[in-house]
Amino acid sequence: MIVGIDLGTTNSLIAAFGKDKPVLIQNAVGDFLTPSAVHNNRKNGILVGQAALDLLTTEPQNTAARFKRRMGTNGVLQIGRDQFLPEELSAFVLKSLKADAEKELGETIEDAVISVPAYFNDIQRKATIAAAQIAGFNVRRLINEPTAAALAYGLHAKENESTFLVVDLGGGTFDVTILEMFSGVMEVRASAGDAFLGGEDFTDCICSYFLKSLGYEEDGLPNADHARLRALAEKIKQQLSSSPTANGVFVREGTEYPLTISRTLFEELTEKLTRRIRLPIQRAISDAQLTPAQIDRIILVGGATRMPVISNLMTKLFKRFPEFDLNPDHVVALGAAVQAGLLERHKALEEMVMTDVCPFTLGHDISRILSGPNDLETGIFAPLIERNTTVPVSRSHIITPLRPGGRHLAIDIYQGEAPYVKDNIKIGSYNVPIPYNPKECENVDIRFTYDTSGVLEVLGTVVSTGVVSKLIIERTPGQMSPQEIKQRFTALERIKIHPRDEIKNAALIARLNAEYENTLGQQRQSISDWLVTFEIALKTHDKREIEAARKAVEEHLQFLSGSNAFE
Ligand code: ADP
Ligand code: MG
Description:
Layout: E1 2-7, E2 11-17, E3 22-24, E4 34-35, E5 37-41, E6 45-48, H1 50-58, E7 63-65, E8 77-79, E9 82-84, H2 86-105, E10 111-116, H3 122-134, E11 138-144, H4 145-156, E12 161-169, E13 174-182, E14 185-194, H5 199-213, H6 223-240, E15 245-252, E16 255-262, H7 263-269, H8 271-287, E17 297-301, H9 308-318, H10 331-343, E18 353-358, E19 362-369, E20 376-385, E21 389-391, E22 393-399, E23 408-415, E24 425-433, E25 444-450, E26 456-462, E27 468-470, H11 482-494, H12 503-518, H13 521-539, H14 543-562
Parallel strand pairs: 1-10, 10-11, 12-17, 14-18
Antiparallel strand pairs: 1-2, 2-3, 2-4, 5-6, 5-7, 8-9, 12-13, 13-14, 15-16, 18-21, 19-20, 19-23, 22-25, 23-24, 25-26, 26-27
The structure holds adenosine-5'-diphosphate and magnesium ion (MG).
Adenosine-5'-diphosphate (ADP) binds next to α5 and α6.
């Protein structure tokens, strides 16, 4: 069985293709969404999901979130007493989803389709594959998130022919994709996006505003207080999606600070971010050679599209209302499972075909000789695969070294749309060995192959000898070698993971601790009492007693949050 996984910045989900449709799988606490957060506690082991997210506010030093944004950067994160790469943290999330699927499906799961933002670059894609391998997965395909969303919608399509625009604003990334559908064939026409723009940036704006209004510098609060203020900013941001003003109380050192913000002010503070959303939309439309009027359906995906500013922007640009038929939190995982079904040649999907594109231009650097051998213009970008070419694609051209007598030809690979490489993203450095020839320049044929997962392979062929070398990245920060992946896989196998059947209890304790820090007075006293009662129940090691106590506390909590006592 192949599963489909949405490995998000904020939330991750896993699904499988059932009898005739994709089906989401629940995690250990009974939710479809598993927060992409990891808590490291040597005593109890690694904890993933909602419990870890709650612990982020009470034990920020032992907890990590939003690490997808750092995938492929080589940055090590200190969590508790250990250090982890972002790939390893993602691997913990993937491992936990894997355990959920294995429990539900009753078999060992290895094969997976994993979704990535369309605008993820080669390094970020390879980092995602590395994370999956560390978690024990065999990645059958990476699928672009908006493409996955369109697959899920395509399965439900009533009309036979239409042009879709998918806008996916998640926690950390933004993608726009235009697709055409005709009799079961779905074809991506263009994708554009911003791999560093998401709902989290909107939360940061509110957090900065609150810091300022409380009289603190940007980094003026201790970690734990900052984490709590940010969690409050997140809650308030979500409230603003359904009401014109939102407020909350920030508790610090026994004092309550009421905070409030209006939607109008929020939209003013985040105007710069909203402006960044327009650009990729315009580019995708012009690349697809369409006009806004030719778009039949607008589909919003990703939690952050719940902000009214996004649907208003779409309505203004396209003069029609966007669709929300499928849950924007679920649709990418469902689509990844449809892709899994397609790879399994599932009978229910016989009529369906999907093609995708490479959303950005890939090329390398060259130099040009101007008036003489010492007068060079360097760092010019030479595109080889142009953006929005249908994948898989393979393109090559011949390049000539500047002078004879070299033993290597060095090329740097870049992704981007700027004429000079300094303004594009470097994704690797390569060295093609060439035979020593003091008299003549040895020409080299450079071939880029971009596969259906959006992963790039580069080959260099010396024209005179026909010797082909598969180019290995020499100096890319953040790229893991196969040996390193293996090492990390073995290392992770040894790390203690919190027992799955105790996750519900751990999650409840994390939640109670977070609520305790957030409240004062009578409420705080009640929470403390429940915490103690629950800890006592845990000590009995009696499953039934523990479950009864957990249910009782959960009901109390629900009652309190239902009566808005925590707002
Ligand atoms: P990812 O795919 O990156 O994990 P999601 O699609 O789960 O992201 O979206 C997460 C983002 O959506 C977060 O930034 C979160 O704050 C935001 N979000 C969720 N619900 C709302 C809401 N009601 N209003 C505004 N933003 C929301
Ligand atoms: Mg997402």
